[in-house]
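WARN retry 2 of 3 for item q-0093 after timeout on previous attempt; input resubmitted unchanged.
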Amino acid sequence: MPEMPEVQGLVEFLRGRATGLAVTRATVANIAALKTYDPPLTALHGAKIAGAERHGKFVDLRADAAGDELHLVFHLAKAGWLRWYDELPKTVIKPGRTPIALRVGFDDGSGFDLTEAGTKKSLAVYAARSAADVPGIARLGPDPLDPAFDRDAFAALLAGRRTQIKGVLRDQAIIAGVGNAYSDEILHAAKMSPYALAASLDDAEIDRLFQAMTDTLTDAVATASGKPPADLKDAKRRGMQVHGRRGEACPVCGDEVRSVFFADNSLEYCPTCQTGGKILADRRLSRLLK
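OK item q-0093 returned
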């Protein structure tokens, strides 16, 4: 799943490549991906891209349509991605027979497709007059790299939450932009069990977790910066210390990286670094093995 650093990389790429270009087409191939009807997607035709922003894991392309502000917003979900073309293909998209959910073309001949792999289709596209009109954006918590989001603000979010810290980090209504992969990386850097309860963390643990979150995401954003969309996924994989590395040696201590599997995903962790050597039971509601 694209998370905050990769989405930021996409935003920076689109800001540099598409700003100033006029939209010549915006065609939905998977009608279920389009979540809005007013304004219609066709309202973007002829509009000039004025900029690109990120809200959590949402990409927001801001456009000027004859003096009216419009936004093309999309969320790539678990299996979505953006494929950029300097010369947009002229092939006809056949709905239902393609992984393409949306095709956008610009007046210089360039453009992009939003694609989604697999059978579970969750990618979402919105045309809106304001980014705040998109329900998912309106519900977002603070951005973890916002200068205003300091250690004390982070501690206030954790206070009283009898929830496993892994879930807190992934909850977009609490903290925007962190997903499964980077929550694994943050917890590994903080030397903290994913099952630790947020409300149980002491001041030193909160300090350590906040610093790990800030450092991990800052480094990942720097790694993604300046890369074209085609390179962002591999850059993310190469930067992972534990996520997606089950069975490999922890780069810090050399212990075997372990997994806990859930219905549609998994978490990875290092027992030596994070759980005092204990192995987490492979059940969603379990605690540490006795």
